[in-house]
Amino acid sequence: MSYQLTSLLFLAACWMITPARAGIITVTSTSAFVATMNCNKTAPLFAQCSESVAAGTATAVADVLAGHLGALVGATAPGFVTSLAQVGVGLALNDLTSDDFLQIDMSLHGSFTNAPGNGANVSLIIDDGNEIIGAPAIGCNFLNAQSGDPCNSEAA
After folding, report:
1. What angle do CA 71, 47, 31 make, to 5 degrees?
2. Which residues touch 58 (CB under 8 Å, ≥6 apart)?
3. How far apart are CA 92 and CA 26, in angstroms?
4. Residue 123 to residues 2, 85, 106, 137, 155, Cα–Cα distance (Å)
5. Same domain, 96 and 41
6. Full-prediction pTM beyond 0.85?
7. pLDDT (average), residues 74-96
8. Whole domain around residue 110: which residue ranges?
9. Cβ density class 19-58: b for 16+ within 10 Å, e for less
10. Percent above pLDDT 90 for the chain
11. Residue 50: inside a domain
């Protein structure tokens, strides 16, 4: 009797276990884009520009596989010096439910000197094929560093 009861309890417990279903995330396309003052490059996985002008130097790196964007600007004289790095990743989200989620982590690191207004920002834009969905942005500039305020984080 005890054996049958144990077997029935075991079978009942196994019947209550629901198998976990997982959606499929497929990378459909990638693009790395960088630009400095007079340099623009686009490639599927990695792009880099580095340039010096009378006003200073700029370097931009976009590495899709590492998930890294880098932009360095060194202004040494009045003028225009800029650096831009951008990554595009196309994803197909198949068999996902409203309970599933995709976590994307972003951060911004750097120091900002010289005149107020110098700084950087990082943002995430999601296009679901029907609309562009607002997503968070992080911005830092010389004014944040000067006043001791941390970089701001805002939902777009």
Report:
1. 105
2. 36, 37, 49, 50, 51, 52, 71, 72, 73, 74, 81, 82, 83
3. 5
4. 63, 11, 8, 4, 9
5. yes
6. no
7. 84
8. 104-156
9. eeeeeeeeeeeebbbbbbbebeeeeeebbbbebebebbbb
10. 19
11. yes
